């Protein structure tokens, strides 16, 4: 680049450099220009040291793939933590209700609420609020930070408008996006491994961040609960997948950076114990810690040495928004000190770490004017300097070199992930449309960064393959994704009446399926049904999405261990079955007829030759009767979450942990007894007794009177 030559100081004159000493006093240095390195040579060295030609990005991509494999093999196997997210199933589109999301990123804190309307209506309404995280909280105590979050949330919840509806008695549920490395221990708990992105909050590392938030909500009197702890990348993946089934990877490029992707469970050697029924899970790579083969400049090394985590997060420090401006600032300060860029004195303002922010260098790069006026005024505002046109050009060269490296390395990282997936599942990534969902302020606002990233991906994959790889800004970001994951992992397994699908098919079974030995059955709602002969049910199960059996009734004698096996197998069979498929599925030598109501699966096991629709109707009848007796959603919720209620606060009171008091246990026993009684009213010894809803309800009424 020849632009630098014009500002190269002439040999032999004096220059003065002022920058703060460690004691904060301005230091004035004088030097002979003969000792001075020219600005041009500093720029050239910078450009050389951070160059990312093809072999460099090829190496980074391959090395990323290798590190991913090492991290999946064993915990601690590589820089990349490859954290299990406990998100095994992604939103289906059927989610309904009001959910909240919190997002603690690096710069901002966001609170969001969303009203989900199911497949048809999707996102009915959203509202959000965003605040900058006060600087002092980044270095304060854990209580201070989480109290800030809880009180902001409380204020936000108070402003809920009438567009949002929470079913009576239900607690507001939160998807909590926490964009720092967390060792997830379940979908709603995780231990903070370390702070990144300049945070140094005391008392949180090694603790469950959900517990920290719950305690703060308790202190602030906020009656909400966290249903899903979500990394921001995972939230982005979930949010994007809600609209597009081809999304398999999500990348955040904001203050910090991270990536996650959908992995096959059989490709995760370190995954012990039961695998997810879908055979897939989301892996949070924590790729910010990657470091192999990254070209570094002296400015990177100095910035790293001065950081609160020297030697760590090297990928993050070269590609993410927190650092790009700072690297550029360090280069400009050196140019000012050693090459008198901006005149005789080093501008004081520019000597302050992080004075030049990434949005500043981005804004400068958008200046297309001949005299680079915007660059001049930004330099004036940020660094307090009056600059010449040639100096402005140099500043742009510095910014471009750093941003080009950042974007290209990010692109190489993405290729590293994609090629890992392709190697394990030939043809399923590169030979079809695969979407990488992107989010974060850096990606969103920096067009040059985006195009450098895309260039590297195209260079590495070739023009043909890269046509199949769609890298796009995620429509909703991680916020709605987190709310969606709160919905998919909702703790309120209620039979929401609106979710109960009406079965209104009228069938005369006497003409078909003789093997079922059914008499006339008209399943039109409201009509009484007549059943003759035997309907032989082996067992009936009511399970939640996580596979917890809430109710089990066996009409065949089975050992306890066998029952557990059956329950596990049935759960796996039904939980991730595509809703497009039938509700009947072969199970060993029998078949299972199942139906999902909100978060609960009702499953019946019958003979392979039995009539499926009749049993489907039977399930629905059972649900209708349950609905009748537990018409209040909250009460239905109580049935299955009973031990979590604190009776001293009343039935609709806030849930505060589990309660095993004799009172609570007694109440639980009564409710369960009632449910079993209802079940017995219409199925006895595996045979349908009564199929008239009215008759059963009347008989239950008689029983109540007897009590
Ligand atoms: P976080 O990462 O804190 O969750 P964001 O995703 O909003 O938050 O990213 C904020 C970061 O994005 C900022 O720290 C900054 O580095 C970068 N950024 C924000 N605005 C711009 C912009 N206009 N140009 C370039 N980078 C930007
Ligand atoms: Mg974020």
Characterize the structure shown:
Residues 249-487 form the Hexokinase C-terminal domain. GO terms for molecular function: ATP binding; clathrin adaptor activity; D-glucose binding; fructokinase activity; glucokinase activity. There is one protein chain. With 707 residues, the chain is α+β, with helices and mostly antiparallel strands. The protein has three domains: 38-85 and 244-489, 3-Layer(aba) Sandwich (Hexokinase, domain 1), CATH 3.40.367.20; 88-230, 2-Layer Sandwich (Nucleotidyltransferase, domain 5), CATH 3.30.420.40; 492-706, 2-Layer Sandwich (Beta-Lactamase). 40% of the residues lie in helices and 19% in strands. It contains 20 helices and 22 strands. The protein has a six-stranded mixed β-sheet, sandwiched between helices. It has a five-stranded mixed β-sheet with strand order 6-5-4-7-10. The longest helix has 36 residues, at 389-424. The structure holds adenosine-5'-diphosphate and magnesium ion. The site of adenosine-5'-diphosphate (ADP) has 18 residues, from helix 9, helix 10 and helix 13.
């Amino acid at each position: 680049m020849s632009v630098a030559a014009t500002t190269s100081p002439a040999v032999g004159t004096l220059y003065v450099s002022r920058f703060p000493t460690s004691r904060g006093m301005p230091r004035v240095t004088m030097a002979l220009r003969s000792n001075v390195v020219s600005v041009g040579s500093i720029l050239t060295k910078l450009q050389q040291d951070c160059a990312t030609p093809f072999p460099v990005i090829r190496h980074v991509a391959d090395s990323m793939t290798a590190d991913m494999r090492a991290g999946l093999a064993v915990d601690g196997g590589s820089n990349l933590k490859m954290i299990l997210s406990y998100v095994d199933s992604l939103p289906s589109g059927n989610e309904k209700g009001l959910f909240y999301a919190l997002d603690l990123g690096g710069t901002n804190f966001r609170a969001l609420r969303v009203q989900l309307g199911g497949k048809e209506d999707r996102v009915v309404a959203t509202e959000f609020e965003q605040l900058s995280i006060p600087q002092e909280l980044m270095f304060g105590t854990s209580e201070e930070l989480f109290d800030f979050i809880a009180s902001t949330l409380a204020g936000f919840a108070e402003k809920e408008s009438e567009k949002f509806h929470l079913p009576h008695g239900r607690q507001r549920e939160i998807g909590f996006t926490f964009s720092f490395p967390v060792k997830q221990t379940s979908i709603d708990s995780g231990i903070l491994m370390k702070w990144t992105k300049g945070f140094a909050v005391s008392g949180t590392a090694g603790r469950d961040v959900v517990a920290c938030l719950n305690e703060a909500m308790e202190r602030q009197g906020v009656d909400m609960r966290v249903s899903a702890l979500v990394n921001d990348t995972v939230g982005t993946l979930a949010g994007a997948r809600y609209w597009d089934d081809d999304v398999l990877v999500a990348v955040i490029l904001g203050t910090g950076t991270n990536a996650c992707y959908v992995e096959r469970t059989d490709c995760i050697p370190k995954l012990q114990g039961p695998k997810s029924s879908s055979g897939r899970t989301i892996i949070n790579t924590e790729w910010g810690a990657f470091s192999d083969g990254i070209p570094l400049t002296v400015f990177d090394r100095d910035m790293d040495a001065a950081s609160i985590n020297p030697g760590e997060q090297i990928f993050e420090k070269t590609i993410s928004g927190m650092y790009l401006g700072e690297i550029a600032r360090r280069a400009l300060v050196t140019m000012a000190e050693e090459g008198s860029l901006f005149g005789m004195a080093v501008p004081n303002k520019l000597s302050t770490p992080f004075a030049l922010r990434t949005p500043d260098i981005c804004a400068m790069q958008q200046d297309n004017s001949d005299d680079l006026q915007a660059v001049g005024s930004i330099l004036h505002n940020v660094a307090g300097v009056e600059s010449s046109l040639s100096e402005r050009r140099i500043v742009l060269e510095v910014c471009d070199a750093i941003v080009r490296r950042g974007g290209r390395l990010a692109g190489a990282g993405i290729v590293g992930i994609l090629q890992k997936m392709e190697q394990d599942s030939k043809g399923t990534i590169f030979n079809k449309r695969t979407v990488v969902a992107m989010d974060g302020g850096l990606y969103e606002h920096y067009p040059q960064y985006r195009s450098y990233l895309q260039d590297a991906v195209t260079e590495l994959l070739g023009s043909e393959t890269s046509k199949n790889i769609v890298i796009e800004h995620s429509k909703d970001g991680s916020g709605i994704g987190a709310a969606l994951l709160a919905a998919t992992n909702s703790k309120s397994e209620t039979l929401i009446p609106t979710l109960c699908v009406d079965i209104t098919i009228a069938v005369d079974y006497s003409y078909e399926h003789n093997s079922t030995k059914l008499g006339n059955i008209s399943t039109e709602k409201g009509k009484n049904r007549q059943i003759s002969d035997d309907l032989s049910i082996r067992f009936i199960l009511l399970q939640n999405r996580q596979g917890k059996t809430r109710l089990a009734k066996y009409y065949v004698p089975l050992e306890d261990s066998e029952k557990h096996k059956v329950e596990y197998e049935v759960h796996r069979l039904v939980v991730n079955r595509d809703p497009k498929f039938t509700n009947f599925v072969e199970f060993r030598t029998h078949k299972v007829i199942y139906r999902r109501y909100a978060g609960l699966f009702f499953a019946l096991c019958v003979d392979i030759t039995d009539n499926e629709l009749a049993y489907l109707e039977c399930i629905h009848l059972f649900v209708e009767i349950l609905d009748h007796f537990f018409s209040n959603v909250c009460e239905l919720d109580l049935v299955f979450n009973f031990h979590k209620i604190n009776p001293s606060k009343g039935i609709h009171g806030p849930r505060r942990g589990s309660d095993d008091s004799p009172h609570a246990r007694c109440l639980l026993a009564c409710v369960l007894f009632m449910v079993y009684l209802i079940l017995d009213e219409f199925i006895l010894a595996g045979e349908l007794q009564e199929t008239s809803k009215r008759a059963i309800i009347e008989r239950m009424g008689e029983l109540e009177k007897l009590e």
